[in-house]
Amino acid sequence: MWTNLKSVILVFVSLHVTFGASNPDYSIQMSKIKVLTLNHGKMTNSRRVPSVPQLKCVGGTAGCRAFIPQVVQCENQGSDGIAIQWECKTDMDNAYRFGKIMVICEGYDYPGDHYVLVGSCGLEYNIDLTKEGIDNHPFIP
After folding, report:
1. What are the boundaries of the signal sequence (predicted)?
2. Does pTM top 0.85 for this prediction?
């Protein structure tokens, strides 16, 4: 009987660990995130607020239609004492570059929480023209 009970408990614990590990409803300290890989067309995880696109262009000198990144990788460069400084990269033509970037994550318990919901981070960015872009695309505002 104890053998059967132990087997049932082991199966229950295994199922809990297996399915619990894939559950995105857990937190991580924002400063512990080293790299984010964000994809065009994918949405963030959400817990307290609606999901948003992982990648969202919000302007720039090239405009949002000039170049649409498919995958962006952002690396945590450390903190300035107030906020984490991110460096974001993608494959793009030399005519374009990221301008202003802002990594935004959902605070786990409240806005501004230093612990964030895993998978909730997104990037808002500007696409700017480089000098080469200005020379080659003079009609883009």
Report:
1. 1-20
2. no
Q: How many CB atoms lie within 10 A of CB 80?
A: 8
Residue 55, class by beta-carbon neighbours within 10 Å (0-12 exposed, 13-18 middle, 19+ buried)?
buried
Q: What does each of the 141 residues of the chain score in pLDDT, given as a tens digit? A: 544 444 433 333 333 333 344 455 799 999 999 999 999 999 999 999 999 999 999 999 999 999 999 999 999 999 999 899 999 999 999 999 999 999 999 999 999 999 999 999 999 999 999 999 998 866 655
Q: Which positions ≥6 away from 113 have C-beta within 8 Å?
A: 27, 107
CB distance 75 to 34 below 8 Å: yes
